[in-house]
Amino acid sequence: MKLPETQLALLEAASATEQRTVAQFAGELGEDTAAVTRAAFELEEAGLLAVDEHVAEDVALTEEGERYREAGLPELRLRAAAVEAGADAEPAEMGRLIGASGLEGPEVDIALSNLARKGYGSIEGGAVQLGADPKYDPDEDPEAEALDDIADGNAGYLDSGILDRLESRGLIERTETTVRSVTLTDDGVTALMEGVEATETVSAVTPELLTSGEWREVEFTEYNVEADAETVHSGKEHILRQTANRVKNVLVGMGFQEMEGPHADADFWINDCLFMPQDHPARTHWDRFALDVPLMDDLPEDLMERVEDAHRNGVGTEGDGYHSPWSEDFARAVALRGHTTSLSMRYLSGHAVGELEPPQRYFSVEKVYRNDTLDPTHLLEFFQIEGWVMAEELSVRDLMGTFTEFYEQFGITDLEFKPHYNPYTEPSFELFGKHPETGELIEIGNSGIFREEVLSPLGVDCDVMAWGLALERLLMLMYGFEDIRDVHGTLCDLDLLRNVEVVY
Ligand SMILES: N[C@@H](Cc1ccccc1)C(=O)O
Predict the structure, then answer these.
(1) What pTM does this model have?
(2) Which of 199, 212, 403, 414 lies 20 to 30 Å (CA to CA) from residue 3?
(3) How many Å apart are CA 145 and CA 143, to the nearest integer?
(4) What's the 325 CA to ligand 1 centre distance in angstroms?
């Protein structure tokens, strides 16, 4: 009989009476586990080996668990400091104990809650009183001992209650692995007695094999497509980036051109051009990220004058200004843009790519920054899908039709529109879509038709409809997750990102 080298080595190393694991053979034979596993399955298929599988749990300390094993559990360190301070008689002041125990940051809360849970002590009025009747002997704290056992490789002796507790404290990590053990079958023993030789097998066709014609003679390794393989998380494009690119493709397909421009921009482009009064609440430091950099000096003077005039006096014979303060320095101050409508202003003004004649369609899919409170639907930065259409005559039907056409390409067909107010558009509409999991209506964008007060200073004398849509909200509707922080930031759900199906 002839067998490929690894199979032959495994067959010869295996015993009919003693079970040994694939990992042990891999060590002995100096081969990698995957190759030995593959060989074991092939020999099992040929009836020469028996492969036995069972699931084993592996327990390891996390980085935090390792730290506590060395320095002591926070509750034990706090208790030790309290004993030192005589807190078994008189309550000892917390601040002092924290200093003495060397606990830092989140360790303090961890120490306090576990101190109470284990009955080592209680906290009242900012002082620690040691408990008369603790649940455990602090010198034999079961969690501290379990950490040592785990570090010494003796996790097998621990009961699952303590492991659950340590796991919920984030001090250990449990993983399940399939352990495969191998023994020779009778047929295997017979084969070995009759003699087995190595066939050299080739796992890949090389240019040399092809040119020499040797490929005709060699034996190729068989692939076992059913064998377990290690899960490989290869790098891939983040779904947010994937969707941003898809949005760009869709908009280009609808005849739009892409805008570019600075993330940090003058308030002039971000707000003043949009007929946002300088005392508007959104322009205070509570909402925006101001930057401590010099004022922007290359702003078009004539446009600045016309914008100031619109703010002060309004536009047209019926127009009235804001009667609110106007300062040039305020307009020149630089901040992170809170929307990409700053880009629309740069383009519409002729400042970015020269004067534009209708019809025109422009878009961007870019980051914006807002000083919002983080919650499931708000981040401090997000991607906005900005866009506008310039034409002689536009109506709300054009706006709605554009959104219907755009969102349809992402499978979203139940848009709802709500009248809204923006200082720069009239009429204005907020857009809503239904969350596929919760059925809740979520806001996905804001839109409208630019007012005369915006267009006239820019020198545009036809209609312009415009919008800002949230890319992350579009993603929520497409993929059904409920918390925006699942897809980016430090709390992101890696499993979701790795396994989410790409929707086309
Ligand atoms: N700038 C608006 C979106 C918008 C753009 C253009 C016109 C109308 C609305 C926002 O960020 O919400």
Answers:
(1) 0.62
(2) 212
(3) 5
(4) 23
